[in-house]
Predict the structure of CobW C-terminal domain-containing protein.
Amino acid sequence: MAGGLGVDLVGGYAGVVAVVALSFVVAQCLVLLSQRLRFRRVMQKSAELTQKSAAEPDAKRIPITLVTGFLGAGKTTLLNHVLSSADHGLRVAVLINEFGAVSVDHRLIAGHATSGALADVVVMKNGCMCCSGDSPGSELEGILNKLLEMTAVDSSLYDYMLIETSGLADPTAVVHLLFRHEMARSRFVLDGVVTLVDASNVHRHLAVPERGPLVRPRPEVARQLALADVVLLTKTDAIGDAPGGREAVERAVREACPAATIVVSHPARAPLEQLLGIDAFRRRRVHLAPERGPTAVHTLGAQTVCLRVRGALTLSALQAWLQRVVVTHEAELYRLKGTLSIAGERRRFVVQGVHGEVRGHFDEAVGADVAASAQDATSRQPEDDESSVLVLIASTGPPPDFAHQLDEAELQSSLQACALDGEGSVVVVRTDKPGATRRAAPALDGDECVDCGDEQPLKKLAHTEARARIARRGGAAPSGLA
Ligand SMILES: Nc1nc2c(ncn2[C@@H]2O[C@H](COP(=O)(O)OP(=O)(O)OP(=O)(O)O)[C@@H](O)[C@H]2O)c(=O)[nH]1
């Protein structure tokens, strides 16, 4: 009897294990299949792009600068600088990709462009360009679709394109895409990769021993640096020249990307001639080919909470709330940003936070498009209100380092308490919880060097380029280069 029960139990467990194993295998197969299909679409679209471009051999080529850098490093500030500078005389198309379901950046960008400098802003929400994504159309495809659309637009309408990656993006796959031989024959040409590094916070994501312990390494930061042609070191004003200051950060950055040029500047005053039109890729003799196997190192490990506010908030209550949030979440809060409606104010209140620091200011230019709609805000549903939003992005991990995970219900109710006379409401638009780790995107197969036809793993690119530049300068290659 007991023996029979034991056999039944063993048989039962074996059945459960078999079902679990089978489900796992089926799930993996489906993921692989969907990735293959996606890559096929990407290949077809890049071929289509070449064909369309070939039909207009005389159309001018549009240089693309990929602007990357971790959350809060200053990418949007740099884009605004480009768009408000009259000196370059370019009409710029901007493609931005935000992490989180709600886009704040497009509002901060469009309001600041001087007339004539901005040709178009396109936002791709909730994504990281390196990932295959959960949705049918990936961000990579999003870029291709946009480029395809733009081949249909009169090329005299724009002269330059800026693509801003999300702060949590590993830009490898995008660089790959833009560097493929099909792309080399298209209307678009990759001019360079500009990586912004927040000198005051980079030690939290990349080892800078002199500046304190590394709490959570972000592999995206290392990849963003590895691909950089130019590193724009920002926020050095916040750390000064004391030991563990700017020099220590520069040393760490130099180690991470020996080949890149380092420019130290506030992004709002960056010397654009050192960032745009640098022709870094055409000058490269080594072209990208895929690594075999997964290339993207994007690991989520981050949680996003997007809050939408209906009605006006009281400024003093909001300020106290913001202060409390950044103090509580300093270690894990990568980013806090939004544009909010304040009682008695027509202008939007722009909130900018990175780790333990938060600032806010009223901005005339931001939300000018929504001023009219604010008048009938009472008749609108909170989920319809695009103009008053707050996005929080935080790292996740075990205590004690990450003792205070974001609690969307608590954030919602405490922010709601900042509403004027208790009226208005705050809704959680979306939370992205950790655990929903996206798969890294495998490389595109069958790529080859435009110049020599050789296949060359991407990871060697930085090294080869480093060697080439060092050789040009007549120096010795640093140790550690393969
Ligand atoms: N003090 C100082 N503040 C800076 C500097 N660069 C950017 N900031 C501020 O840092 C905050 C974040 O800048 P953004 O340009 O929005 O950063 P971002 O990289 O676009 O951020 P995400 O799009 O969220 O990844 C803003 O308040 C900027 O004004 C700098 O060099 N010095």
Q: What stands out?
A: The chain has 13 helices and 13 strands. The radius of gyration is 24 Å. The longest helix spans residues 2-54.
